[in-house]
Specification:
By secondary structure, the chain is an alpha+beta fold. The chain has helices spanning 8-22, 69-82, 92-110, 116-137, 143-150; strands at 43-45, 48-54, 61-67, 157-158, 161-162. The two termini are 36 Å apart. 15% of the residues are buried.
């Protein structure tokens, strides 16, 4: 990802320059994956959708990172695959262990940014899929029996194993450090690293 302070022409010229730097190394920019866009339009990068928006109730605009639609579609497809009718012969505990690994890993990766709404959606989606799976596994059971056996507090549970709650994962925003980031480059005119400069 390359960020440019300028207009589209500046970005296009830099794109050509980057291609020239990569060529001697035997690398090239992928035309399919390389795009030039404005930060206000937003773009996808490493599973995140990054976009500058105006903060609620304020005039200032900030850059936000959300889980992308493609990333959300990927994890919901995994949840769907784990909770199909073909998997109903396994124990609920086994299903929850497999599901928890997927949900925990995905939310840990995307917790850096603004994922709260996405995590709450994933929580509701996973809950509906597991409850539907339980109804298929026990077709003659009543809701009262289903709740008492497998949904204490309306949450999928088997003994000590509970379904991981994506909505309970707290967001952890990266704080802007700006000029406070230590530099490994030498101080101007000394030719030595900052900690050795006289």
């Amino acid at each position: 990802m390359v960020v440019v302070s300028g207009d589209r022409d500046h970005a296009e010229s830099l794109k050509t320059e980057v291609a020239g730097v990569l060529a001697p190394m035997g690398l090239r920019l992928s035309e399919e994956k390389t795009t030039v866009c404005h930060i206000d339009e937003g773009f996808d990068f490493l599973g995140f959708h990054i976009q500058r928006k105006q903060s609620r109730g304020k005039q200032k605009r900030y850059v936000y990172a959300y889980p992308s639609k493609k990333a959300l579609a990927s994890v919901t497809e995994k949840v769907r695959a784990l909770t199909t009718g073909r998997t109903k012969n396994q124990a609920l505990k086994v299903l929850l262990h497999r599901l928890n690994a997927v949900l925990r890993g995905w939310t840990n990766y995307f917790r850096y940014g603004v994922p709260t709404a996405t995590f709450n959606y994933l929580r509701a989606f996973a809950w509906r899929r597991v409850v539907r799976w339980l109804r298929r596994k026990h077709p003659g059971i009543t809701w009262k029996e289903l709740r008492s056996r497998h949904l204490p507090g309306w949450w999928p549970t088997d003994g000590e194993v509970k379904m991981f709650n994506p909505g309970g994962v707290a967001a952890n925003r990266y704080l802007y450090r700006g000029a406070r980031i230590p530099s490994p480059w030498s101080q101007e005119g000394t030719g030595r690293p900052p900690d050795q400069a006289a």
